[in-house]
Amino acid sequence: MILNIEKYASKYLYANLDTPTGDIYYCDCGEIFTKGSADEEVKKELVDAGTKVSEMSMDEELAAEFRDIYKGVKLGFEEEVKCPKCSRNFQSSLNRETLIVNGNSFISGYSFKETDSDLFLYYSVIKPDLKSIEKVDFSEDFKYLRFEKETKKLFYKDLNRHPNLTMNEVEFDLDETISIVDKFFVFETTKIVNMFDLHLFLGRVSNFIIDAKNIDIIHELLDSLQGKAGDSGVDVIKKIISIFFGIIKYSNLSTIAMTKSSVFLYDLMLECKMPKPQILIENNITSPIKIFNFLIQNYVNKLSEEVNSDNKEVHEFTFKSKQRISFDDNGENVKVEKTDEEQTVKFQIRDANDYIEGKVKKAKGQYQVEDVVEDGTVSKFVFKQIRNFSDYKKIIKFFKLVERQELITLLQKYEIDFLLNVIDLIYFRKKLQFKELERLLDIILDATAVKSKENCAFLDGILG
Prior knowledge:
Helix content: 40-55%
Shape: elongated
Number of helices: 18
Number of domains: 4
Number of strands: 14
Largest sheet: 6 strands, mixed
Oligomer: single chain
């Protein structure tokens, strides 16, 4: 077996329910004993239901959940389930938690293997296979990531989740790196062991990464793992593996990690639809700014699809107000009353003639539409100013209000954090002349520097 189950097996109890001879329990003292069912009719109904779940569903998690529920019902029916040798009570709450039903995955873990040609990272899932009445046996299923050292090819094999299916190994490229790594790090059990093997895999893969010594992954990501136990650091390791695989498939991505950060590169890979490396090669996309601007267009296109996906015919809006509006029986004579408590009202608007395609938002009492950026590329200066992908997502909103050169002027005059904080306040204003926009920003900057009631009221007037 890939996972050394012997290290952990003795911490659990096991049961094979509803065999021809009854319910068989395997005690950790070595004793194996049989108990009958207290209610054969209920037993038959549960068994039939469990069989249907297992046969009809490809979802092993659902079948395992049913078996766990069934285990509790069975133990509740029995008058006494105790080991005749050591008197361990299988019905106690503690022993019920550690009692594993035949066929239920109960422990999983990682394993790093290296051969002359490959690096393997396995994730193995173990379940008891209680065919023998003399001892506890186990069955194992596994998935893995494989790195071929010489060719730099990457491969993935998934779990065989259903007895009628056998998953074969598949090769993947840059365009699938994030999705495959995410799939690999889906857990099958709550108990996960051998986390250290993840670090062994990372260490060996790093030896094949161009510019690995110049990428500050240790400070940015690995340091955050200190003091974390169990699987709490897996999200960080998943990011590092994705970054490594991305650079393996297209080495020029390392320049993004070096000039910006490893986290910046990961966010870029996550937010943008990565192409095949050949596309980047054919378009001579090598420098950091070229890579960023080339990939960012995929993000902008995705954003455009999301913005324009709203239903143009029906939009539901929610209002909160301390005013209650009522009408007489004829629908006339509007009456407005003040209330002490805020009330929430929902209604729908259909067939709006002046609707412009895009996300509708309610801002300052008006329905407005979020504009779609057609070209999300930025200059070298702007690229240098942004520190992470979140900065980029906000800073490009300024393209609704200013031209590209004007954005550079704003970044030269104001701190980027100020611009990022203020954009949502001014985004839905009508486009101003650049000098007017600068004047507005100066006023906001002065008002926020001295937070008086007068300044706040003044700002409300400006932005209202």
